Amino acid sequence: MAAPTRLISRLTLVTGGGSGIGRAVCQRLASEGASVVVADINQESANETLSSLPDDFRGQVHTATVVDVSSKDSVKKLVTNIQTRYFQPPSVCVNTAGITQDDFLLSMEEEQFDRVIQVNLKGSFLVTQAVTQALVACGAPKGSIITVGSIVGKVGNLGQANYAASKAGVQGLTLTAAKELSRFGIRCNCVLPGFITTPMTDKVPEKVISKITTLVPLGRMGEPAEVADACAFLASDDSRYITGASIEVTGGDLLQFIFPADVVFIKG
Ligand code: NAP
């Protein structure tokens, strides 16, 4: 079956596009015809993603750029530069930039809590606000904002008080943005991945991964491309009547999980 071409002539921005899920999203959006701006805190990894992107459609132009999503100045500069280069703001934005800094609640430092909130939650706010402000200002008829939460934001996880709080916040931010922005034709939806094989989960000890895998109803970790599939659907007009939704990409209902005390999502 030929790949769908639902995103021809759409300009898309993917934060955290240099790695893992973000890279897979860039590749999927590009394969469906979109022009992709790969934005990451690491220029080198953004460039690597850029060099992997197909550009088989007329007018398809991809770029790679640096952004720190936790900095308002950096995000503003990103959106301004995109508008200068492409003469329009991105009509699709996928917020995948994210970090973990795991520790038990009893020993977590304030800095660990603050940094994870700054990147995951405030970063999603700053990028969503800057992109939608630009879309509203130019009178764009439609937009699709996709945030990446986590199933951990719904069910919690040992060692991830900061991360779970940030991801629950991302979901609340998305629900509110959906309500406020629907009158401008902008849809906002959240993807909640479960346990996906990426550099982020490479940090998790093998014995923990194998325990998690036995708890997943579909019996395996997810692949970044499987999260990208959901993002491409939400980016496209196939989801035109969907806003304020959260789509779980988890391999099954992780709410059933009862994590034993030794299944800890932290290093070591
Ligand atoms: P990843 O491979 O570590 O990719 C995250 C990317 O974001 C990296 O390239 C990272 O750069 C970049 N980044 C970090 N801080 C940034 C900042 N301040 N500004 C811009 N970019 C920044 O992780 P992933 O697993 O693909 O995760 C992608 C998203 O999915 C994250 O939001 C994560 O929380 C979420 N998620 C992942 C899983 C999973 O199982 N993998 C599950 C649920 C949700 P550096 O590498 O240089 O830090």
Automatic annotation (TrEMBL):
Top EC class of this enzyme: oxidoreductase
Reactions the enzyme catalyzes: a (3R)-3-hydroxyacyl-CoA + NAD(+) = a 3-oxoacyl-CoA + NADH + H(+); 17beta-hydroxy-5alpha-androstan-3-one + NAD(+) = 5alpha-androstan-3,17-dione + NADH + H(+); testosterone + NAD(+) = androst-4-ene-3,17-dione + NADH + H(+); 17beta-estradiol + NAD(+) = estrone + NADH + H(+)
Subcellular location: Mitochondrion matrix
Taxonomic lineage: Eukaryota, Metazoa, Chordata, Craniata, Vertebrata
Predominant localisation class: mitochondrion
Family: Belongs to the short-chain dehydrogenases/reductases (SDR) family.
EC number per UniProt: 1.1.1.239, 1.1.1.62, 1.1.1.n12
PROSITE patterns: ADH_SHORT
Gene Ontology process terms (BP): estrogen metabolic process; fatty acid biosynthetic process
Keywords: Fatty acid biosynthesis, Fatty acid metabolism, Lipid biosynthesis, Lipid metabolism, Mitochondrion, NAD, Oxidoreductase, Phosphoprotein
Encoding gene (name): KE6
Pfam family, one: adh_short_C2
Protein name: (3R)-3-hydroxyacyl-CoA dehydrogenase
